[in-house]
Each structure stands twice: as structure tokens, then as C-alpha cells.
Specification:
CATH class: Alpha Beta
CATH architecture: Roll
CATH topology: Nuclear Transport Factor 2, Chain: A
Helix content: 25-40%
Distance between the termini: 73 Å
Number of helices: 5
CATH superfamily: NTF2-like, domain 1
Order of helices and strands: HHHHHEEEE
Number of domains: 1
Strand content: 25-35%
Largest sheet: 4 strands, antiparallel
Strand order of the largest sheet: 1-2-3-4
């Protein structure tokens, strides 16, 4: 059985597939700075939570990496593996190149002999746009 597809149908199908590819790729990276920072900040927090400090360190701005080594950075997160949950609670962009992200962290306090259950605390982060990428600014 020989089915012949009319030229117009083949061409329309090809254009449709091409448009899916173009628009699909364009949709991968969110346009709004708040959305881009939210994704990057959550990826960083996820890396901290699983104890992958090298991956979390890679989110630091180039200037921050000059100020702190990977070993120093890792030492500052002794309690991160005890986090029960961590999520980006909100992102607010002051300018098109500077955003603040608030991270909500659920954890069990490491107080000897105390049974306080899980509590939530917050960590505020500054994110800067540099070279087309959003970077976390390290604050000791």
C-alpha cells in the first residue's frame, strides 16, 4: 500500500515541528528575573541539602569565589545535612540585575538534650546578574 502525503501537508507538518522546537527551547529558560533566580536558588539549596557543597559553591558569583575557597564555604554549612526541607519562599528583584531570595529552612535544632521538633527559619540571599547568568553573593 503506497500512501502519498500531499506536499502542503508535509510542509505544514515540518513547519509545525520546527515551531515546536523553537518555541519549546525558548520556553526552557524563564524570562522574568524572579523566575530565573527562583530556579537557580532552589538548585543551590537542593545541593546544600544533599551535602553537595561543591555543586552549591559553583553557584557563587565569580567575585565571591575570589573571597572564599570551596573548603571555607563547605565549613560554613555544618548543619545543612540536618535540614528536613528547604525551599525558595520568595524572590524580589530590586533592579534588573539584583534580586533578593528568601529561603525557608525546616530543621531540627541541634541542641543537646532538647526536643523542640521541627522549626522553620529563613535565610536571605542576594543574587546578581553577571555575564547573562544569575550568581549568589557570598556573605560570611
Amino acid at each position: 500500500m503506497n500512501l502519498r502525503v500531499p506536499h502542503l501537508v508535509r510542509r505544514s507538518g515540518a513547519l509545525f515541528l520546527l515551531s515546536l522546537g523553537l518555541f519549546g527551547c525558548a520556553g526552557i529558560e524563564p524570562a522574568a528575573p524572579e523566575d530565573r533566580v527562583r530556579i537557580r536558588a532552589q538548585e543551590r539549596v537542593d545541593a546544600l541539602r544533599r551535602g553537595d557543597f561543591d555543586a552549591a559553591y559553583a553557584f557563587l558569583s565569580p567575585g565571591s569565589r575570589v573571597l572564599v575557597t570551596a573548603e571555607q564555604y563547605r565549613a560554613g554549612f555544618v548543619a545543612a545535612p540536618s535540614w528536613k526541607g528547604a525551599r525558595v519562599a520568595e524572590v524580589h528583584c530590586e533592579t534588573s540585575e539584583k534580586c533578593l531570595a528568601r529561603i525557608a529552612i525546616e530543621h531540627v535544632p541541634l541542641l543537646r538534650g532538647a526536643r523542640m521538633g521541627t522549626i522553620e527559619s529563613h535565610m536571605d540571599e542576594t543574587w546578581l546578574l553577571d555575564g547573562g547568568q544569575w550568581w549568589h553573593v557570598y556573605r560570611p
